[in-house]
Amino acid sequence: MARYIQHLFVCENVRPEGHPRGSCGGKGSAAIREKLRAELQKRGLHPTRRVNMAGCLDACEQGPVIVVYPEGVWYGGVTVDDVEEIVERHLVHGEVVERLRIYRGEQ
Q1: How far is the C-alpha of 27 from the C-alpha of 64, rounded, in Å?
Q2: Residues 96, 46, 29, 57: is their CA dihedral positive or negative?
């Protein structure tokens, strides 16, 4: 049996200021990861969901980026204010938050 039913990877890659692609770390992704962890803890979801810091996920221009597995759903332009909605709609109810969804690879 798998230890976690979902993994959330939050890009925290940092590039030098002014880099043309930008970076998720420079756009507040560490605070997003911490808020995700706090929400999972608050709702009692932490035993079955895991939030991990990730390096570059190669979607820098759309960051901050979160990827939810096993679904393979990518979220971009995420803010701390979006975290509760992602947890409630996606993790609790299985509904993708389409306004934040970005596509990688096949669509």
Answers
A1: 6
A2: negative
Domains of the chain: 24-52+59-100 (3.40.30.10)
CA distances to 4, 21, 28, 77 from 18, in Å = 38, 8, 15, 18
Cα separation, 56 vs 81, in Å, equals: 22
Residue with tokens 């980026």: 65
Question: What band does 1 get if pLDDT is binned at 50, 70 and 90?
Answer: low
Q: pLDDT tens digit string along 40-59?
A: 999 999 999 999 999 999 99
Q: 60, 22 in Cβ contact below 8 A?
A: yes
How many other CB atoms sit within 10 Å of the CB of residue 42?
Answer: 11
